[in-house]
Design brief:
It is a single chain. With about 260 residues, the protein is an alpha/beta fold. It has two domains: about 90 residues, no CATH class; about 150 residues, Cytidine Deaminase, domain 2. Helices cover about 30% and strands about 30% of the residues. Helix 1 packs across helix 6. The termini are far apart.
């Protein structure tokens, strides 16, 4: 997939060829190419022999901002941290997610349980990740699949943006481990709770803590672990807690 802005290719990605409009918009939002989906005036999906071009034409203001950003960029960017030329650009300060959302342990487990039945493509291929958005009022609002976990979240981000749905009122749930890139994308979405079936990296924990995101990992049918901001998770019984050293400080790591 080639992501093309105003006729200039920004990145070439490997992706599953479904929900490509969502992918183009979500990638653009998470990469800071646009501030809102409305800044993409036109979007064309053009199939070619070697792949697919996602051609986006920007509004004048967004286009001017994009040109200025290209001039300030020394090297190309790509999936994850590939091509990033400095540590500062790899880990820019994240917008702090401020949310009064509270979810129960039962709701976290319900969000995780809702994802597998909705993975239609993975049921056929056994090779795809999924990202979903769950709320207490609606259950699983939306799910997107891709061979790459980053792409799946970008597709979900774009799908929610196109539908006018804010991620601030529910739970992001994923089938993968949690990397720093997923935390960065969740922060851009304004998502207060990120839940995954596998473990996070230590850097993802650090960034989620700084961004004010409740990070839940190793989520199973009957248990999960909270790595950051446990105050958003409401439980009836007191959690078993243990402490561990992380970046020179002691952090509470709650296990349910």
């Amino acid at each position: 997939m080639a992501l093309v802005y105003d006729g200039s290719t920004h990145a070439v990605m490997m992706a599953t060829p479904q929900d490509l409009e969502d992918f183009a918009i979500g990638f653009s939002l998470s990469e800071g190419q646009v501030e809102s989906a409305s800044e993409i005036a036109e979007l064309d999906v053009v199939e070619q022999d070697l792949g697919i071009e996602l051609r986006m034409w920007m509004t004048p203001r967004a286009g001017q901002r994009l040109v200025a950003r290209r001039r300030a960029t020394l090297g190309p960017t790509g999936c994850g941290l590939c091509g990033v030329e400095s540590l500062e650009k790899a880990m820019p300060p994240l917008k702090v997610v401020a949310s009064a959302l509270k979810v129960s342990a039962v709701e976290v487990e319900a969000a995780v349980a809702s994802l597998a039945p909705a993975q239609i493509l993975n049921a056929e291929s056994r090779a795809l990740h999924a990202a979903g958005f769950w709320t207490l009022a609606q259950g699983l609002v939306m799910v997107r699949e891709d061979v790459g976990r980053h792409n799946a979240l970008d597709k979900l981000s774009g799908g929610l943006a196109r539908a006018g749905v804010s991620a601030a009122g529910g739970i992001l749930v994923m089938t993968s481990r949690v990397s720093i890139e997923l935390v960065q994308k969740a922060a851009v979405m304004g998502a207060p709770v990120l839940v995954a079936v596998s473990a996070p990296t230590s850097l993802a924990v650090r960034m989620a803590d700084e961004a004010g995101i409740t990070l839940v990992g190793i989520a199973r049918d009957d248990s999960f672990e909270i790595f950051t901001h446990p105050e958003r998770i409401v439980v009836d019984d007191a959690p078993r807690a243990r402490s561990f050293n992380f970046c020179g400080k002691v952090t509470t790591h709650a296990v349910f």
